Amino acid sequence: MTESARDGEYDDWLDSIESDDGYYLECSNGHGWLPPRRVCPRCHDQELSAVDLPESGEIASHTTITVPTPQFEDDAPYVTAIADFGPVSVTGLVRDVDPDDVAIGDVVGIDVGERVTTGDRAVVFRPR
Amino acid sequence: MSDPRIAGASVTHFGKHPERTGRDLFAEAGLEALSQSGIDPDDAEALYYGNFMGELAEHQGHQGPLMAEAIGLDVPATRVEAACASAGTAVREAVKTIRNGEAEVVVVGGAERMTNIGTAAATDALAIAADDLYEVRAGMTFPGAYALMARSYFDQYGGSHEDLAHIAVKNHEHALVNEHAQIQQEITVEDAMEAPTIADPLGLYDSCPITDGAAAAVLTTEAYAEEHDLDAPVAITGTGQGGDNLALQDRPHLAQTPAADKAAEEAYGDAGVGPDDVDFAEVHDCFTIAEVLAIESLGFYERGEGIAAARNGETTRDGDLPINLSGGLKAKGHPVGATGVAQLATVAWLLDGSHPRADAVPDSTVGVAHNAGGTVASTTVHVMEVQE
Ligand SMILES: [Zn+2]
């Protein structure tokens, strides 16, 4: 793995998840986003504030990927899901559960894990 | 304001041509389209060219002038990139240029070379149409993204993988007479159901193949066509384009494509037609579920009802509203940056009666092309009509 520059607010956000201090950005009208964002794309509000990410979310959709990109070659098969945390949704890898047992509506917590193939950090969901 | 006429169009064979360079693929399509048009190439005033992954597949950026040169033109040349909607977006630019009166003859096209880098690298290249930070790093692939949409659709509206299999069977059947198609092979629902899974619930037969190919068309004004006595009976009467959040996670609905709703509304309004006036459509079925989402966004079906259309025989070639008579991306193939212009060519040929599946839509007057990028964060819709 080559050293590369951090991706600013994205890596800061991963750090926050890693230290159980996860957050998202919310506009005055309650629309939630992940950083970096300077403006709400839905209502154009620029007053975005950091709000604590709920401890658990619900799986909105999921798929078990058997044909990966080279960066996930040794991870496959793996489950990628979108989890709904209220005003914001997050995409991550579902771990610690048999892929066949993952279902829409499952309650999951969010964490940061390592990708098998590259060792890079990734958002990980685990059943709660 | 003049609705551009399609004076000529051409597509290369879509398939595995790993040793053919992008510039050679485009030269074949572009020169043939110019020849078909009967227009003196010296009259061409601009090129709009779609290409998505040239940097990754051929280590080639700055493709506009390269492709103009490849077809023997010295004109302002602009490459348009909107993932899989690159060529549809190029068509829209060409339409606007002609309508604005800035040019009388414009060449529009696209090309993609993909199989030379192999399936793994092509999968990687296609994935960059998604949000790199928040999707690709969480393992999202192009099929994976559509799998998330398919599962969400089943959850919200019902339907099953077997319904999707009927779409694959239909589009394979449609392509049997299309000599440009990558796959000319009849399949059964059982074949599609038993094929290996790529990203569940989607399997191999839910997915378009990886394709090399090019397409081009020559557009001109009605006045130029009349003055030069061109055989150009089909006009682009409506154009629309819509956008959406790039990442699926940021959208309120995973099983709807509002970018296509917006593009369709604009294109219908522009043409002064509605979904009920449309005789047939070529839609962006990069995955079977994408055809379902497309025909709902185009207003042919209510939300949740498009899933049964192929199974019920409504969108087959003997149905009321044939969809993807070319075989679609599924069977015709999907050289990403060429697809939108290949759709345009197909609709024109179906309307003028020269397409091998034109017998399915005799006396048709209105056709639609729907071209989508990524997980439909970009969409163009074009309405085409036979004039006179
Ligand atoms: Zn807002």
UniProtKB/TrEMBL annotation, chain A:
<dbReference type="InterPro" id="IPR052513">
    <property type="entry name" value="Thioester_dehydratase-like"/>
</dbReference>
<protein>
    <recommendedName>
        <fullName>ChsH2 C-terminal OB-fold domain-containing protein</fullName>
    </recommendedName>
</protein>
<dbReference type="InterPro" id="IPR012340">
    <property type="entry name" value="NA-bd_OB-fold"/>
</dbReference>
<feature type="domain" description="ChsH2 C-terminal OB-fold">
    <location>
        <begin position="51"/>
        <end position="108"/>
    </location>
</feature>
<dbReference type="Pfam" id="PF01796">
    <property type="entry name" value="OB_ChsH2_C"/>
</dbReference>
<dbReference type="InterPro" id="IPR002878">
    <property type="entry name" value="ChsH2_C"/>
</dbReference>
From TrEMBL, chain B:
<dbReference type="InterPro" id="IPR020616">
    <property type="entry name" value="Thiolase_N"/>
</dbReference>
<dbReference type="GO" id="GO:0008299">
    <property type="term" value="P:isoprenoid biosynthetic process"/>
</dbReference>
<dbReference type="InterPro" id="IPR002155">
    <property type="entry name" value="Thiolase"/>
</dbReference>
<dbReference type="InterPro" id="IPR055140">
    <property type="entry name" value="Thiolase_C_2"/>
</dbReference>
<dbReference type="GO" id="GO:0016747">
    <property type="term" value="F:acyltransferase activity, transferring groups other than amino-acyl groups"/>
</dbReference>
<protein>
    <submittedName>
        <fullName>Acetyl-CoA C-acetyltransferase/3-ketoacyl-CoA thiolase</fullName>
    </submittedName>
</protein>
<feature type="domain" description="Thiolase N-terminal">
    <location>
        <begin position="6"/>
        <end position="222"/>
    </location>
</feature>
<dbReference type="Pfam" id="PF00108">
    <property type="entry name" value="Thiolase_N"/>
</dbReference>
<dbReference type="Pfam" id="PF22691">
    <property type="entry name" value="Thiolase_C_1"/>
</dbReference>
<keyword id="KW-0414">Isoprene biosynthesis</keyword>
<keyword id="KW-0808">Transferase</keyword>
<dbReference type="InterPro" id="IPR016039">
    <property type="entry name" value="Thiolase-like"/>
</dbReference>
<feature type="domain" description="Thiolase C-terminal">
    <location>
        <begin position="240"/>
        <end position="385"/>
    </location>
</feature>
